[in-house]
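Hi L., both proteins are below.
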Amino acid sequence: MSLRERLQEDMKAAMRARESDRLITIRMLQAAIKQREVDDRRELDDTEVLSIVEKLIKQRKDSASQFRAGNRPDLADKEEAEIVILSAYLPEPLSMEAIDTLIAEAVSNTAASGPKDMGKVLNSLKPQLLGRADMALVAEKVKARLNNG
């Protein structure tokens, strides 16, 4: 079952169960997917849908931290609840050891020799890590590895 089919089934289940928060979040995700499809004038595959899910989660995390800083815990809680719902559509996260192994492989495969090669390494890692690791953390690890030689 593709991710889009799963979203459709989950939306129907949320309607039947009258889970309004879940339904609103799924509809928001579907709207973001549809908007991207209209912009690109083509149907998205699961990898591209995963990138949209990651983007929405990142937006929710940023909003939640802003709401907490602005003393609005009610709005922050709502954003965090949406993060939980959206996270269910991401694949199982990788362990730190697995990420380190993939970074080591990518560095050797791309023949990266220093910080100037960071983009090459990250581009080779992105398809493998999409939805399974925080790319900001991966970028820090790659940078540290390339700086240390």
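That was the first. Here is the second:
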Amino acid sequence: MNGKPVKPTGDRESATQALERELSVLFGRARSISLSLAARVHPELDAACYALLLHLGDISPVRAADVVERTGLDKSTISRQIARLEELDLVERVADPHDGRARLVQLTDVGAQRLDTVRSDRRARLHAILDSWPTEDITTFSTLLGKLNRDL
């Protein structure tokens, strides 16, 4: 394709509506799974803070301002979520070794251990679900999902 919008046809409209329905189901199930996994990390952890914890698990230690920039969320939201994660002993603020005035956010040992356990279980569940899928289907789905994520 050349990147130009495609004029909708009956088939294309039906396909788009089917995709929209399936994405709606997927997002609902993903939210439900996130709530369940969040509770396994800590019974008082909500889905939004769980999402931030996942992100911090990939990038920490990091300045809170960098988290704002990477996520696109506003500073007050990130600040509130980090404070909540600190209350639950899942993250901590430490001195930046390159700038003594700055603080970095990183997972605590407890936070890292609990997140690793949940991620490992989540990965095993996904492997079990995809076990019957041909590798080519997994590759195609991953490629198309990546394209959708980039375009969003």
